């Protein structure tokens, strides 16, 4: 199965996000991540949806999204022509045995320690989803307590824009 990133430009109105996410439920499509926020123009929001499937699933999702009333534009983002980022906050055990290893890994991954107690550390890491996954795997044997991820946000590279 392939991974797809779809950008959706919508009117910033009550119920629009519910209609978009409801489409996935009704059609039986699974969402890997779903992020969205108002754009610089308060009349519109931009959603970024990632999903896995075949080409038929991708086409179905795009076609169904285009049919929704408040959707203004839908665009499939190509990996080589877009920039993706995600944020994760991870809480790990802070012990004398693991402390230096956790701090070294945070430095290698350009992560920030945002909270430090004698028993726990919270670390913020930002980057491509593959970097987030890799950092999580490095932390696993050191004692992950809790994680929270934002989901993918993405923009096309260069002069290409999505708005209206």
Low-confidence stretches: none
Distinct helical segment count: 4
**What is the assigned CATH homologous superfamily of the largest domain?**
ACT domain
- pLDDT averaged residue by residue: 94
Sum this structure up briefly.
With 164 residues, the chain is of the alpha+beta class.
Q: Describe it for me?
A:
The chain has four helices and nine strands. With 164 residues, it is an alpha+beta fold. It has two domains: 2-77, Alpha-Beta Plaits; 83-153, ACT-like. Chain A, domain 2 (Alpha-Beta Plaits, 2-Layer Sandwich). A hairpin with a 3-residue loop joins strand 6 (112-116) and strand 7. Helix 3 (99-108) packs antiparallel against helix 4 (129-143).
Write the layout of secondary structure elements.
Elements (H helix, E strand, L loop, with lengths): L1 E10 L4 H12 L5 E6 L5 E10 L1 H13 L3 E7 L4 E12 L5 H10 L3 E5 L3 E8 L1 H15 E6 L3 E4 L8
Antiparallel strand pairs: 1-3, 1-4, 2-3, 5-7, 5-8, 5-9, 6-7
Helix pairs in contact: 3-4
Name its key features.
Alpha-Beta Plaits; 30% helix; 164 residues; 4-stranded antiparallel sheet; 2 domains; 5-stranded antiparallel sheet; 4 helices; elongated
């Amino acid at each position: 199965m392939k991974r797809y990133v779809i950008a959706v430009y919508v009117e910033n109105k009550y119920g629009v996000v519910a209609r978009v996410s409801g489409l996935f439920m009704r059609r039986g499509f699974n969402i890997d991540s779903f992020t969205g926020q108002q754009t610089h123009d308060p009349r519109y929001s931009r959603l970024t949806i990632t999903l896995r499937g075949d080409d038929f699933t991708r086409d179905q999702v795009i076609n169904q999204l285009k049919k929704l009333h408040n959707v203004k534009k839908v665009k499939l983002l190509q990996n080589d022509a877009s920039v993706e980022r995600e944020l994760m906050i991870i809480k790990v055990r802070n012990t004398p045995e693991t402390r230096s290893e956790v701090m070294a890994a945070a430095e290698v991954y350009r992560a920030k320690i945002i909270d430090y107690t004698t028993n726990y550390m919270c670390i913020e890491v930002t980057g491509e989803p593959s970097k987030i996954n890799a950092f999580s795997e490095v932390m696993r044997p050191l004692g992950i307590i809790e994680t929270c991820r934002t989901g993918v946000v993405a923009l096309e590279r260069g002069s290409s824009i999505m708005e209206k």
